[in-house]
Task: inverse folding
C-alpha cells in the first residue's frame, strides 16, 4: 500500500508546485497506459501456452517460433510491467523497518527518496548505459533467432530493455517527487 494513501488518479495542482504535479501526472498516465496494455500480454501468453501445449501433446506438432514467442511475451510482461508495479508500490521490499510503527510518513518518504536516488536511478542508468551497445549491435545486424524456425526479429525484444528501464527511471522520478511533496507537507497523508 502506498504511503501517501489513496491519492486521486490526477493530483490537483492547487499548491505552489503545479509544475511538479504536472510532471507526476504525465509520468503516471504514461506508465498507467503502458501497464494496462502490458496486462493483456499475460492473457496472450496464457492462451499461446495453452495452444502450444495442446498442439505438442495432442497433435504432436511443436513450433520453435511459438516457444520463442512465449519467452518474448513473458519478458515483455516483466520488463514493461516494472514501472507500473513501482507506480502502485507493488515491488518487493523488506518491510521490517519500513512498515514499523516507529516511522512516520515523512520518514518513509525520506527512505523512498534516498532509495530512488541512490539505488533505483543509478541501477537503471547503469543498465541503460551497458545495454545500449548490446541493443545497437542487435539492431545493426537485424538479429534474429539462432534456432531454425525461430523468430526473426529478436532485436525488437532487446530494444524493449531500453524502453523498460527508461520507463522505470521516469516512474522513479515521479515517485521521488511524490515523496518530496509528502516530505514538504504539500500533500495530505
Result:
Amino acid at each position: 500500500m502506498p504511503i501517501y494513501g489513496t491519492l486521486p488518479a490526477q493530483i490537483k495542482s492547487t499548491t505552489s508546485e503545479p509544475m511538479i504535479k504536472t510532471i507526476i501526472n504525465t509520468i503516471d498516465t504514461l506508465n498507467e497506459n503502458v501497464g494496462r496494455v502490458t496486462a493483456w500480454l499475460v492473457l496472450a501468453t496464457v492462451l499461446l501456452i495453452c495452444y502450444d501445449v495442446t498442439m505438442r501433446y495432442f497433435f504432436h506438432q511443436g513450433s520453435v517460433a511459438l516457444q520463442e514467442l512465449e519467452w518474448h511475451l513473458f519478458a515483455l510482461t516483466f520488463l514493461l510491467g516494472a514501472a507500473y508495479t513501482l507506480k502502485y508500490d507493488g515491488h518487493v521490499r523488506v518491510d521490517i523497518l519500513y512498515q514499523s510503527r516507529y516511522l512516520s510518513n515523512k520518514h518513509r518518504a525520506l527512505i523512498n527518496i534516498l532509495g530512488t536516488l541512490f539505488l533505483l536511478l543509478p541501477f537503471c542508468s547503469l543498465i541503460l548505459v551497458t545495454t545500449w551497445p548490446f541493443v545497437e549491435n542487435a539492431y545493426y545486424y537485424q538479429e534474429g533467432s539462432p534456432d531454425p524456425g525461430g523468430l526473426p526479429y529478436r532485436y525488437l525484444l532487446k530494444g524493449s530493455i531500453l524502453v523498460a528501464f527508461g520507463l522505470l527511471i521516469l516512474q522513479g522520478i515521479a515517485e521521488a517527487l511524490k515523496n518530496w511533496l509528502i516530505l514538504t507537507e504539500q500533500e495530505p497523508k
About this structure: Residues 82 and 168 are 7 Å apart (CA to CA).
